[in-house]
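Progress report, Aim 2. The chain analyzed during this reporting quarter is listed below.
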Amino acid sequence: MNSLPRPLRVLRNATLPDGSIVDVELGGGVVVSTRPAARDYSTTEEGDDVLDLTGYLLLPAPAEPHAHLDKARSWDLIAPPMGDLGLAIASWRAYAETMTVEDVATRARRQALAMLANGTTAIRTHADVLLGDAPLRGIQGLVQVREELRDLIDIEIVALPGPDIPDDAIEAALDAGADTLGGAPHIAEDPVADLRRLLAIAERRDIPVDLHTDESLDGAVTLGEYAAIVADWSRNVSAGHCVRLGTLATDERDAVIDAVVQSRIGIIANPITNLYLQGWEHGVSTPRGLTAARALLDAGARFAAGADNVRDPFNPVGRSDALETASLLVTAAHLTLDEAYAAVSTGARDVMGLPVAGTAPGDVAELLAVRARSLAETIAEASPERIVIHRGALVARRTLTTHVAPSRREQSRIGVAV
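Predicted structure tokens for the chain:
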């Protein structure tokens, strides 16, 4: 294979989700044209900048709107208790006191590259603002990785302070390279006060906000207050988890959703982690631990979905693959295949404030080609054979070789004694 990244000019014989087979011309990191595939190709259609996608479904590349690269792949190092959000937080904080900037960078780099190999070309990652003498270790490790991988994947860093983190530490995290302000007001003793504190900092600095919001089956409901405060804001705002929204009575739920739509808050579901963390105390009729995905979509809310935690105290599993998230949205949230894939691709990019990606002229060339014949096959089988395009350049390609012993019928056909 030629060295990567490899700029591309033409994608040939790509299958789109509607079944059409097209040639896609790229230039300057965007789609220049998409036209029916030519039957005959001239010599001008040859070269290292031409890629034949025969047998591949071409899709907008996934974007990850809610990751924790600073925590990723720490499960085996911590061996934490299972199934309790409070204990997960405590075990993580205990481990975080011992980790170094390079430890964060090593795990985050490995995780980001695994996600890239599966097709994700943009990641929004939260990074804890820590207690103690080195509160910015997570931020500093992720800033290092963001710079290292800048030609391969876009990384946005969200400073994530707990309610016990003082304002000066939050300001320092933003000065150290965080792009966006996060937080988790619902776990504070006074959730609304902490919500207002965080939003005041974001407003003063004029930066985007992405808050962990109401991440439980019961307890505080802050999403409505959040929507009221930011109703007139022009900066990008979003809310992750919003599990509590899925447990509210219909009238209350719909009133909050209406406020969310009016304020343009993007909602980010995190099915893998929330299905794992929520509901352990319910021995029967265990609730799903998801936000009100269907009601949000039907109301026209900006909607995305992410994997959240991967192999850390908050979730011991995860495949670093947006198709896993999409599959869970189909099975657990009852979304259609199109809705599920949109949530991890175009919907995620919208909530993250990124330009539109796809195959229409003018779309940014953030694309994923999967060896499959349809979107249903893509989500169901999640073929590992993938081609990843970032800013119009080939940045990752994976192929698969499979060896299976012949069946009795096949052995008989080729004359092998059975």
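The chain has 15 helices and 17 strands. The domain at 6-60+359-398 is CATH 2.30.40.10 (Urease, subunit C; domain 1). These observations will guide the mutagenesis work planned for the next reporting period.
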